[in-house]
Every structure is written in structure tokens, then in C-alpha cells.
Amino acid sequence: LFKSNSDLKSLFQGFKDLKTDDELRSNEALENHATLVMTTLDDAITHIDNFDYVSEVLRKTGASHHRFEGFNSENFWQIKDPFLDAVKVTLEDRYTDNMEAIYKIAITFILKTMVEGMEDHRNSNANTIKAADT
């Protein structure tokens, strides 16, 4: 993710100053964040048949990113290709055109829902601030 999107790394306080791949691989903050991301993705995919639950989890996750200075909703999309590459490597010979199509649909839904959650949160806050100013 950070090899192809080095600008994204600068948004993370815990590992933005790390220079080498070895430093990144051994960084506890990055490991914790990666685990959190993968847990969220796994939860969404595991419960994909429960739209209301998955939508709520993803929208809340997206909304929670408002607190990171410089992070915008479009940043979520930067994980799409690295995620799909990881799926391909993990599934090895079980990776088929059908599996690729399924995972593309799943990750697009996941990221779109997180974007909506973040944007809705920002719009809600903007409306609250406007109402307070009037």
C-alpha cells in the first residue's frame, strides 16, 4: 500500500517517518493498524449476507476517520488494488476469474460504504456548525 501510495504514509503518526521496508515490517503501530483493517474487512466479508450490520460497521468505520488530519474519503480507495493483490497471492491456484469478480464487487461495496460514512459524518458536522452559527 505504501509503496504505491507513499503520500498516504505521511498521514500516519505512528509510522510516517519510517524509511525502509524493514522498518515498516517491524513497526508495531503499523502492524496494529493492519490488523484492525484486516479485521474490519474480514468482518464485512464474513457477514456480507447481513446488509444492515455490515453497512453500519463500515459507515461507522468510515466516519471514524474524520479525526485524522489530512485524511479524505478518497484515501480509502487506495487500499483496493493492494487488497485484491493480497487475495490473489493468498488464494494461489484457487484464484479464478469468478473469485476475482466476487472480491472486486466486495471491496468496492466495502470502500464505497466507508466513503459514504465519512462523507455523511462530515456533512452532519458541517450542518451542526451552520445551525450553531445562525
From TrEMBL:
InterPro entries: Globin, Globin-like_OT, Globin-like_sf, Globin/Proto. Residues 1-119 form the Globin domain. Gene3D superfamilies: Globins. Pfam families: Globin. It comes from the Eukaryota. GO terms for molecular function: metal ion binding; oxygen carrier activity. Keywords: Heme, Iron, Metal-binding, Oxygen transport, Transport. The keyword Cell membrane does not apply. Belongs to the globin family. PANTHER family: BLR2807 PROTEIN (PTHR46458), GLOBIN FAMILY PROFILE DOMAIN-CONTAINING PROTEIN (PTHR46458:SF5). This is Globin. It comes from Batillaria attramentaria. The lineage of its organism: Eukaryota, Metazoa, Spiralia, Lophotrochozoa, Mollusca.
